[in-house]
Amino acid sequence: MAHNRDAIFRRSGLILAVLLTQGFGAMAIPQGGSESNSSQQRHWKAVYQAGVAPFGPDSRMTVTISSDSMVFEGKKGRWSSIPVQSITVVSSNLTSEHTATRNQVAAWGALAQFSPYTLLFLPFGAPVMAATYPVKSKYAYISILWSEQNTDQEMRLRLDRKDYSAFLEELQKATGKEWKNLETEWGKLQQAIVANASHKIALQLDRKIRMGSVELKPGLYQLVLLTREIDHGEAYLFPKNEVNIEHLVATALVDIVPASPAIQAAEVRYAENGNGLSRISEIQIADQVLRFPQ
Amino acid sequence: MICADPNDPHATHGKQNRFTTDSAAGRYLKRIVVLLASTLIILCPRNAYTQEHSTDQPARYHLIQVVDPHTFVEKINEAADQGYRVIAMSHGGVQSLSAIMERVENTSESYNYLSVPVPVPKFATSGKVKTEFEEKLNAAGAKGYQLRMTFGASGEGILDLAIMESNSGPHQLYEYALVTPRGLFGYYSNDQLARLIAAGYRWAGTAGGPQQGPLIIFEKLRGASGSQGSSPGKGPDAAHQRFNFPENNIIRSHLPEKELRKLAAEGARVVDFFGSPKQMILAMESTIPPSAPCEYVVLKNKNLASPLALKAKMSEVEADDLTRAGRQGFRMLRLSATGPPFVMEKLPGSATHYEYQFVSSSLLPKLAEQLNDASLAGFHVAKMESFSDNLLVIMERTDGSQP
Description:
In chain A, the strands form three sheets. Chain A has a seven-stranded antiparallel beta sheet. A seven-stranded antiparallel beta sheet of chain A has the order 8-11-12-13-16-15-14, with helices on one face.
């Protein structure tokens, strides 16, 4: 379960990093407006994942967003409220999970702990698990970071995916800040990468490198460059020959400078990171040089 | 009730006359004035103090509790930029990392932090984890970062993390060497430890989870040799140190108290009590020739038979229990393992007395406030632990010159 969540959050980290490089990140952009003073309250069903609240993992809770606070209520009662103005970052991740199969595995595990003889019935349970494996549940994971009275705190919640957009909208109204809907932004990014996939550039890494927090093994990679301004862009790296958004391994902001003379094949220049790993410092493609951040 | 126009002099005179002629009302007014005055006297210093602290001085403590390790280091560095330094860390809440940062008195000092996660390869072998982790620690040490603290194994699927610190003082470089348990029974090699000690390394901490076994981190200043010692003034002559790792062979998660007392009587000192919930290890250090023995007190929960003796209940260790031992000169050791048991040590000839206070809250701002209040009474943070969904901070006050 924990490993599952780790994998989810690692994935969320990657998606978030991608969106941050685009400038889409979950940064607050003050908007203000009369709607932010709305006194309407709506209750949201959520599942507590991790953080500062004294609830057990996966415990159900109700979140109420008002114009001045977010209130969390669990089975044991109300815990506390977050002053909405103290919220500094809201980040999110959307995912599909094999919940049905996972619950069955957990149930079999519990039965085996109760009595190992129950595993005799596993041959009957296995086909059911296999049959329900394609069934996926869609969830939205939300991380809320806030600072108040000399503290920095974080809480992670899971919401039904259908509530995701409305929840963010409500939060946006209350805080007067814009929290990006990553589902929409991720969709836009996917479209942009697919549209530029025909201009992919093959790169051969001859050593192990680090890009951001990701270590890349030597081998063949495909680079897709999305130019945002005339001298800035985003580089997306995919392993082997294909540009498959599901296999995106690394991303970086790059400066684009003209180069002469133009070359045919992409040329990678490395720099030492100081911890025994190299990093890409520059890639020359045709008549352009992509400069990677240090 | 008197209704009068304040601008009408006659009306005012009328009011004054009424009060001077009515003695009961006069006494009543006097009482109100005296009450008001005494309230002001009582509240004034507090108000003045509150204003001074709220406007002039930043709070003494800054608390962080977040889930993501990257955000954790980011928030620590943000607070460090504002003049704070990490003094305690712990797992806390559900899968979260907590830190207490204290305002640095010397404003010319500033700190910077980076995190080094214990690698979790797909097919983890202790050798691979050790090599990768050692490389990362040494890379940070080569940039002037020193190991500050580690998060022990939480058993909650949280990444084990080492937090490295660099300061604005003289630039010093550090080297790290790790020791992993070997063999079927997971013993630490005495030869390997002896070689490290001879090379000038000293015990810096432990890390690692239940999968790969606890790693012991040794540290030395770059260029220091064995006879010079790595950190002047810290510990005995490195060439004559020896470590013992007794374990409780009956309940592996419990402190081997009998072995502790036996080794302590021979002059050994407790270094750490660490490991995973499945297997805890006591580390004791002795010198050759043996030094004067320290005294130890172990405070732990005790079985309390219920009135009907149907089930046993466990007593809890309270701050008063620590203070009672502290008044006899025993000081709580800051061990990696979560207390209780609390191991308290009394150095030979020590005349210092200690007092303890527990501070706990499920609300971080309230905890910060309680820490600030306790610090005003002379207490400082000794240790932070995760305690039934809350954070428990053990605060210590000393009456001697020893910090």
